[in-house]
Amino acid sequence: MIRIMSIPTAGSAIRGSFISDMDSKKPLSYSFPPIVGSKPKMLILGSMPGVASLEAQQYYAHPRNAFWPIMAELFEINLDWSYQTRCQQLADKGVAVWDVLKACHRPGSLDQHIDPASIEANDFEQFFRLYPTIEAVFFNGGKSQQVFQRHVLPVLSVTPFLTRLPSTSPAHASLNFSQKLEAWKIIKDYC
């Protein structure tokens, strides 16, 4: 069974939505709780859900994002299954999914538009304490790796294996689906 984990922090009552931050007067986007089972072996990290994902309240909801088709190929997940069922299938395989950022100001969906002054990272110290079975972290693209290294890694007491994979975003068009799938096959080594 998937656990929708909530790590309580100040101002974290509303997740996965657009809200207004009173201090900065800029609208902030808030991420979702992680997809995680009882004993995950790996964690896939994005940067922050895009507009389509926030509207659908689902990770990787943009129809041209290759994340779910890649997961379907690697883990025999049927893309016609409900979002909840696909999440459960990932969790059952030992795959956790989350975002590095808990909140940020980003007009639109492109990572390059994230306002660095607005970045608030998720609490990975607590997450890794709760899930010590995680052996590897895979970054879905460069921005998630960059933000993790800058805002999370310096405060972690434990560091699992870290590697960056090509972004599944349709904005990352320098690789086709087959090339992305080939690169993502490394995650099977941790299942």
Give the name of the CATH superfamily. Answer: Uracil-DNA glycosylase-like domain
Strand content: 15-25%
> Segments where pLDDT lies below 50 for 5+ residues?
1-24
Instruction: Count all strands and give the number.
Output: 10
Output the CATH class name. Answer: Alpha Beta
Query: Looking at the chains present, what oligomeric state does this protein adopt?
Result: single chain
Helical stretch count?
6
| Radius of gyration, taken over Cα atoms and rounded to an integer in Å | 16 Å
- CATH fold-level name: Uracil-DNA Glycosylase, subunit E
The ordered H/E elements are EEEEEHHHEEEHEHEH
Strands side by side in the biggest sheet:
2-3-7-8
Question: Can you give a write-up of this model?
Answer:
- This protein has one domain: 3-Layer(aba) Sandwich (Uracil-DNA Glycosylase, subunit E), CATH 3.40.470.10.
- Helix content is 26%, strand content 19%.
- It is built from six helices and ten strands.
- It has helices at 51-56, 67-75, 83-92, 124-130, 142-151, 177-184; strands at residues 3-4, 18-20, 27-30, 35-36, 42-46, 95-99, 101-104, 120-121, 136-140, 161-165.
- Strand 9, helix 5 and strand 10 form a beta-alpha-beta unit.
- Residues 1-24 have low confidence and may be disordered.
Keywords:
19% strand, 4-stranded parallel β-sheet, 191 residues, disordered N terminus, alpha/beta
Could you give a short description of this structure?
Helix content is 26%, strand content 19%.
Secondary-structure topology with pairs:
Elements: E1 3-4, E2 18-20, E3 27-30, E4 35-36, E5 42-46, H1 51-56, H2 67-75, H3 83-92, E6 95-99, E7 101-104, E8 120-121, H4 124-130, E9 136-140, H5 142-151, E10 161-165, H6 177-184
Parallel strand pairs: 5-6, 5-9, 9-10
Antiparallel strand pairs: 1-4, 2-3, 3-7, 7-8
